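Translate sequence into structure tokens.
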Amino acid sequence: MSLWSIISGNSGSQSGASYINSTYSAALAKIEDAKGGTGADTPATSSGDTGVNISASAQAAAAEADDNQKDFTALANEIRASLDTLYAAEKAAGKPKTANFANLSGRALSAVVLNQGAQFMPAEQHQAKAALDQQTRDAFAAATSGGISMSSLASYSQSLVTQYDAMSPQERQARGWTQPFRDNAAKVVSEGSLSLFDQIDN
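Result follows.
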């Protein structure tokens, strides 16, 4: 699959229920018992007495940084436990067992996609890969929001190089980002070559 096909949106969609982050799953499970819901409508986390809301993007950035420090196997186990908590709460509420993987970090999604411990179902792997591809599309849309130009493509490609260099080998593998992919992104920046968009492997 080319990078362009990912950006164009040919890789499926996520389910509608909110993903319960492992950090909050135990607390949310207790709330579920008290309220009889699934937590899908829970608002963004608040800092309490200050009344300051933590934005979704700030939470995502914090989760990304946190997950990058975790052992890959331990992270996969956390995700499995968190999903099981969510599924149990939904079953108790008489709802289908669904999860939205869109809020996981790239490293967490990679743990599901690679499934090194064989603890994730094929449907979960598919959703995680679709979420990784959606991250690529979202980043491209943000980089070209002012219009597609050589300048915006070069800026986007530079962000790909930066991301690649910061990623773990597992995340590169899950995304299908190889050294030639990284080199082609660098060429967009330095030479104005557009070969990058035909050079991503799955």
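Note: The chain has one domain: 3-40+54-198.
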